Amino acid sequence: MGFIPGSETIKISSKRQVVMPFVFRERLIISKSNQLRVTRNENGQLMLERFPSSLDWKELIAGMPVERVDIDSEGRYDPKKSPSFDEWMHEE
Fold this sequence. Notes:
Elements: E1 11-12, E2 18-19, H1 22-27, E3 36-40, E4 46-50, H2 54-62, H3 83-89
Antiparallel strand pairs: 1-2, 3-4
Region (Disordered): 73-92
InterPro entries: SpoVT-AbrB_sf
Organism: Levilactobacillus lanxiensis
């Protein structure tokens, strides 16, 4: 197997822990408190996925509108009574 551009060699510690290269930790914004999901695809390759951190969720929630939204039993709301929510719902 040849060297793939953008890939790095990783080390396994004496405790058999994987040491991720700094360049990937930096690109993925990974710190010691983050969690990663490891999956193996059908080709036997390992895939890493970073779970959102509490800071990620705080930033997401900070962008949500804060207003009362009355939703009826059909899942509808009045956009005139909840204009910020309506605008947020239609962002791309």
